[in-house]
Amino acid sequence: MTKPPYSIAGAVSLAALILYVLTLAPTTQFWDASEYITAAHSLGIPHPPANPFFVIVAHVWGLLPLGAEYARRINLLAAVTSAASAGLWFLIGERWLRTIVVPDRWRRLAAAAGAWVGATMFTVWNQSVVNEKVYTLSVLSIALVLWLTLRWADQPAETRRDHLLLVIVYLLALSATNQLMGLLVAPAVLAYILMTDPGTLLRPKLLAAAALVAVVGLSVNLYIPIRAALDPYLNQGDAWTWTNLRDVLNREQFGKPSVFDNPMYPPGAENPGRSVVLIGQQFLNYWQYVTWQFGRDWPGTVQRVLAVFFLGLGLVGVRRHWLADRRSALAMTALVVTLSAALVFYLNFKWGYSQPYTGLEHEVRERDYFFVASFAAWGVWVGMGLAAIAQALVARAPQRSWRFAAPVFLIALIPLFGNRLTASRSGETVARDYARDVLNSVDPYALIITTGDNDTFPLWHAQEVEGVRRDVNVMVLSLARTNWYLDQLQRRRPVPFAGAPLPTTTWMSRYYLNGPADSLPTYILLDRAATGAIGPIQVTIDPRALGRPYLDRSDLAVLQIIKDQLGRRPIYFSSSTAGIPDALGLGPYLVNEGLVRRLMPALVTASETIRPVEGRGFVNVARLRTLAFDVYRGGEAAARPRPRGWVDLPSQNSLFGYVLMYDTLAAALREREPALATRATLLRDAILANTSYRLPRGDD
User: What is the DSSP secondary-structure string of 419-464?
Assistant: First the structure.
């Protein structure tokens, strides 16, 4: 058995790692990056399925003395795991090319070209420079398991041992505790075994040993209830009971639809079911993501042409692979089909965020990261396709050597040049700066009410990882519909703030104090407008303003907190909550203070510092000016010129808080301080230039 070229694989990994480090995110980013970095730092529990293996690995990695900001260290973990995957894809491609390309030098060049294409595709590269998800670790486990399967199959039948199969089973089980994506390599492994030695699957001793090592691998999930019982800073699902643990592992919080349901309708008898048209639209969404992979920096037409071109190269590789080695070709086909078509069918997503369909709910963001392994694996076949084309050129001119065909492999550099701007996250600090700005906007021991991921996860990161304003409580409405989250909000005590006495009361005086009997109802029907006192204030709640004929648990929790604490402890709404507090009848009691709105215990009236601004309500101009120009750093970061604008359009709403703030400030200062008003306008316009939004003509 020929020794694999591990040194060259190491060089491929090193090249990918250098690229990733040069374009690495310097700190946390939007979406799940802040949550997972926070979970790693606190040995906590992120959202279901909790990903315990990742949390443990990332926590240990974060302890390494790499001399950088903690978030950057965890981002480096994504870069290292992805770069290691590139080396494994090289080894896999090189092994399969042995029956296609005889000269070592050119076979290895072809394999390296394929691995490089896989490593520089947009989604692979973009996910490798920030630890936004756990998928780079999953891709590494997929590539490693496939490589070990090849090594097992390459052993002579008379000396073949089962220990590698047991390692493979263990890795599959272990990767399942990171994310179920790691199991998607199983059909390829099964195909390899069936084509190599099917009797292996009938040996009782091996099956028993495999079951045992699988249980050992899956035992990492015990981390969840053990750690949940200790109540770390991040403890999603509070899964220290069997019921909660089951719900976390099954992702009950997200209500994944059946593969037979239409995900844009509620489950049940009235669900219209998943139609052929919808399935076609879901596959078109996957194709949309494919078109991004090879030239995301360039116009859409160029992206689509490149996608067809690299698809064709891969199909040339597929054909050559099947002609050369049906066993490995079957395994690779099983892997690619599982990672793409089967995954599209299983995930059953709503319409993609940027798909041009109207009338029903779309996904809240792009989901290309779910398919990152399929893109990386496709690079192997692209390398084979390049080898087949080069070989054909040599065959047509026998008097010429492989050197004549060498320029063919330069094609592998196209994704590097086509994605260098959009895949990079170098210098991007807005998420970190935004979190610091929001937390530094409020008084000691305040409550900040937020809506979802991008206005909440960075705050968690700032508090837990950076130690910024841990005296503040953050209440996210998307989780406030659950009992476990409101229970945590009640029992968590703030960290002392220098110079301010520690509060002695919880946020609600009645609910979530002793047990389930204290929980708020799931909802209360509201069939018409209702007026009443909520603590010191009088509100009118109209179901038409709410957009629904009921108050849900998160609404009830907010109202109960206002009733019990308004006037005693500061309560703020993040600017990202938009019209939510107004829909609850709180508009007349809100004062704009930068990235937050303060809830007052009495009707707001104009004064020397608080003035009405058209379209913005009441604004504390003096405080807004101080925050905007002396405290906040995120506005300048958001205004930094970006050659491709704000790449992740679903998260650009996070920039609009600054846009609104500077626009409000410009309007408020136009008469009294025109120089500062002009500065605010310039910052507003610079931020807007990075987004897809444009002000109407004539708006200055």
Answer: STTTS--TT--HHHHHHHHHHTTS-TT-EEEE-SSTTTHHHHHHHH
* Each residue's pLDDT tens digit, 9-48: 999 999 999 999 999 999 999 999 999 999 999 999 999 9
Annotate 505-532 with DSSP letters as a single string: S-S-SSSSSSSGGGPPPSEEE--S-EEE
- Token pair, residue 554, equals 């998160």
Sign for the CA dihedral angle at 27, 30, 34, 37 comes to negative
- Residue 338 gets which letter from DSSP? I
Q: Helix and strand tally (H, E) in the chain?
A: 28, 11
Q: What was the pLDDT predicted at 205?
A: 93
Six token digits for residue 169: 């089973």
Quick check: helix, strand or coil at residue 159? coil
Report the chain's terminal Cα–Cα distance, integer Å.
73
Sites in the chain below the pLDDT cut of 70? 1, 398-400, 694-700
Q: Which of 633, 643, 115 is nearest to 426 (CA)?
A: 643
Angle in degrees, 0-180, between the axes of helices 326-337 and 372-396, rounded to the nearest 10: 140
Whole-number Å distance between alpha carbons of 135 and 130: 11
Distance CA 237, CA 285 (A): 31
- Residues near 573 by beta carbon (within 8 Å), at least 6 away in sequence: 448, 449, 580, 581, 586, 590, 596, 597, 599
Contact call for residues 446 and 453 (beta carbons, < 8 A): no
CA neighbours closer than 13 Å in the CB half-sphere of residue 93: 38
pLDDT digits (tens, 9 = 90+) for 346-365: 999 999 999 999 999 999 99
Measured in degrees and rounded to the nearest 5, phi and psi for residue 243 equal -60, -45
User: Residues in the chain, how many?
Assistant: 700
Contacts of 134 (CB under 8 A, 6+ apart): 36, 51, 54, 178, 179
Contacts of 585 (CB under 8 A, 6+ apart): 539, 540, 541, 542, 545
Three-state SS letters, 194-256:
HHHCHHHHHCHHHHHHHHHHHHHHHHHHHHHHHHHHCCCCCECCCCCCHHHHHHHHCCHHHCC
Cα separation, 444 vs 440, in Å, equals 9
pLDDT in the model for residue 697: 47
Identify the H or E element spanning 150.
helix 135-154
The structure tokens 């897809």 sit at: 692
What pLDDT does 104 receive? 87
3-state secondary structure 397-412: CCCCCHHHHHHHHHHH
pLDDT score of 398? 65
CA 125, CA 421: separation in Å to the nearest integer? 11
Residue keyed to tokens 């709503």:
350
Tell me, what's the pLDDT at 393?
86
The single residue listed with the structure tokens 């084509």 is 195
Question: What's the confidence (pLDDT) of residue 688?
Answer: 94
CA angle 385, 322, 292 (to 5 degrees): 40
Tens of pLDDT, residue by residue over 622-636, are 999 999 999 999 999
For the chain, how long is the longest CA-to-CA vector?
Answer: 93
In whole angstroms, what is the distance from residue 117 CA to residue 124 CA?
A: 10
- Reference 661, options 689, 620, 690, 695; nearest CA is 620
DSSP conformation letters of 647-695: S-GGGTHHHHHHHHHHHHHHHHHTTT-HHHHHHHHHHHHHHHTTSS--P
pLDDT for 373: 97
Give the helix, strand, coil percentages of the chain, each rounded to 5: 60, 5, 35
The two tokens of residue 246 are 């089951």
Find out whether 440 and 469 touch, Cβ atoms under 8 Å.
Answer: yes
